[in-house]
Automatic annotation (TrEMBL):
Protein name, per record: Tryptophanase
Signal sequence annotation: none
Gene Ontology process terms (BP): aromatic amino acid metabolic process
InterPro entries attached to this UniProt entry: ArAA_b-elim_lyase/Thr_aldolase, Beta-eliminating_lyase, PyrdxlP-dep_Trfase, PyrdxlP-dep_Trfase_major, PyrdxlP-dep_Trfase_small
Short name of one Pfam family: Beta_elim_lyase
Stated family: Belongs to the beta-eliminating lyase family.
Needed cofactors: pyridoxal 5'-phosphate
Amino acid sequence: MTNQNNVIKFYSGEQIPVELHKVRMVQKLFLKPIEERKAAMEEAGFNTFLLSTKDVFLDMLTDSGTNAMSDNQISSMLQADDAYAGSQSFYRMEKALREVFGKHYVLPAHQGRAAENIVSQAFIKKGEVIPMNYHFTTTKEHMELNGGKVLEIYADDALQIKSDKPFKGNIDIDKLKDVFSTYGKEKVAFVRMEASTNLIGGQPFSMQNMRDVKKICEENETMMVLDASLIGENAWFIKQREEEFKNAEIKDILLEMCSYADLVYFSSRKVSSTRGGGIVTNSKDLYMKMRDLLVLYEGFLTYGGMSVREIEAMAVGLNETCDETVISQSPSFIAYAVNELDAAGVPVITPPGALGCHIDAMGFLPHVPQTDYPAGALATALFIISGIRGMERGTISSVRDENGDDIPADVELLRLAFPRRVFTLSQTKFVIDRVKWLYENRELVGGLEWVEEPPLLRFFMGRLKAKGDWPEKLMAKFKEDFGESL
Ligand SMILES: *Cc1c(COP(=O)(O)O)cnc(C)c1O
């Protein structure tokens, strides 16, 4: 069967994404009154990471480890084979990885960043560069810890908020050639491509781009590494947006994508809706360079820091990544939200990507300067008026320079994650409605300032407060418009 799109047409002509699953296990949610939401936000120091889920209605902080598991995944966890070495659970996962990614050697790791640690230690030497479409937070840290330098070589317009370019995650081929001529192939540790490029709005690359990158890697005898954490959704976009693949099977798209990479690593928190991670390759030589590090940092070769239950669920989840109804669910709900918000004039990243709906906070709150943290302010305002928890991806997530000044982020984004098969369409409509209301009342939202600013990873643990009494004014307007409604 081809083109198992979640989007269906109503008799009225309206098109909506429909849930191609039924809910058989549920978790109760609480939508608290606005006074309690505002108090919870104050308690959390205007930082959505510090909220307790008992105060959150829709948790759109991240898709990491929060995707819904299938009935088959849950039931597989009961047959898990507990053994330090040689567990049957591991062999089932190894088989799934060989089938889905087409790679023979498998190294399990406790999560994606653990795989990054091993890849970076094994293949990056001090002074080397690593060209890539865009960095991911943990990727960059591991590469720099090992003395490497990240070079982001996306196309000039990839960070443009409003765009109709289908593959903003592509590597710019001319820039890649320049990297090799500037540094020389000896100084390039490897080229990294990240599927559904996380930090620029979940934007995919095309298969043609992979082929072009591979060709240059081969000419320069340089290894190509694929971060496959969000590969399912990228494969879905290739099928949707790249003419050559419109009738292709997802499993064939996945195999072709992986075939260009010498080494593939991933976070199972995303790709297979479980926990854990891993590295796969067809090269015995590359495998041997990583094997001993794996045992040192993660655990024995047949569990790598994961529980056997996770390993079983991962094997099943990997096969489900080939199912179009699974991998299209999150992108089709994101597309619905992005298109509705875009039509209402709300500044959102287009075209819609994977993992979440990304709101441009500088376009949303032009009166809040970057020094007052517009993305953080927007995240807190949205929580107060709706109980929806998003994640700030802007200057608060950045750092200060040696003079103690903020380094303004390239883009100020509020990310509303759509974990796979977690939210329904009425919940999605609630998100759209409350974001639209906030946009109409945007002039009421002010900035934030620090109360406690940790020197390291300040976005996780830092505490802020509102500049002025804007949260009170926002609450008053909400009550005027919505009355007793939550
Ligand atoms: C989440 C993520 C990682 C890190 O994975 P963890 O399991 O959270 O450690 C690496 N790369 C990408 C693209 C990711 O999205």
